[in-house]
Specification:
Elements: H1 4-36, H2 40-54, H3 57-80, H4 86-116, H5 123-158
Helix pairs in contact: 1-3, 1-5, 2-5, 3-4, 4-5
Length: 159
């Protein structure tokens, strides 16, 4: 049974991974779809504004804090190796660190940076907008699924 400070880490892990999954899910299911329905110049400008607004303490605390927490949970699991829950804890941490944080760093952020360098009303922005939406959303689905699966793994570790 997981208890004490480790239990608190696990509850925070469930909360952080779940919140992150929810944010990513919202983007995959309606935010980016709504932006894609706009004319390219407006969609590019709006997505750039959203991406800039995302790098604020509230979201970064949840996202980066959960990434750090997942790493701590993995390390503590290796040290403590809780009976009956180690696999779920390590799986939850790996899913979040690789599938959420890793995909963000390797796939979504570079696309956001490239989009930010484009002039929203330019022909190049218009030409690249539909592929950006398709690729960014596909990677965002991966982040959503990985974050949700991480949360489930952490919940299973608590049961």
């Amino acid at each position: 049974m997981i208890d004490g400070p480790y239990f608190v880490l696990m509850v925070l892990g469930v909360l952080g991974t779940g919140l992150t999954a929810g944010v990513f899910c919202a983007f995959s299911t309606f935010v980016v779809r709504g932006l894609a329905a706009l004319p390219p110049a407006q969609g590019v400008a709006a997505m750039n504004a959203v991406n800039t607004a995302a790098v604020r303490p509230a979201f970064m605390l949840v996202f980066l804090g959960t990434s750090l927490l997942a790493a701590v949970i993995a390390v503590v699991t290796f040290v403590r190796w809780p009976e009956g829950a180690a696999v779920e804890l390590l799986l939850g941490s790996a899913l979040f660190l690789c599938g959420s944080f890793g995909v963000t760093a390797a796939a979504n952020v570079p696309r956001n940076s490239a989009l930010l360098r484009l002039e929203p009303g330019s022909a190049e922005a218009a030409a690249r907008w539909s592929s950006y939406v398709r690729e960014w959303t596909a990677w965002n689905h991966v982040r959503t699924a990985a974050s949700a699966a991480s949360s489930v793994a952490y919940v299973l570790a608590l049961t």
